[in-house]
Design brief:
alpha+beta, two-stranded antiparallel ribbon, 2 helices, single chain, 2 strands, about 90 residues
């Protein structure tokens, strides 16, 4: 096998993993089967994701204060159609 994308992902086929990746798998106890399952899961997830140049799916989220507190105000992505938008996702827990 070559290092070409496997199952439409950026992950290499298990037979072409680099030695440092194999060593990391050994250290963490990750098995070949677990690696394959992870790549297959991500492949399925990626198939449902919008492609570059396609419209993002619309969604609505609650705005937070700079301190991460809830405001009760919401933001809907479609309200910005036609304008550039940058989304920053983070954990406030």
């Amino acid at each position: 096998m070559t290092e070409a994308k496997w199952l439409g992902t950026a992950y290499p086929h298990p037979d072409s993993l680099q030695p440092e990746r194999l060593k990391k798998m050994q250290l963490t106890g990750e098995t070949r089967e677990e690696y394959e399952a992870m790549v297959r899961e991500r492949s399925l997830r990626d198939q449902a994701a919008p492609k570059v140049g396609e419209l993002a799916p619309d969604f609505e989220i609650e705005r937070l204060t700079p301190a991460g507190k809830r405001t009760g105000e919401t933001f809907r992505l479609s309200s910005t159609r036609g304008s550039p938008v940058a989304l920053v996702f983070g954990s406030y827990t």
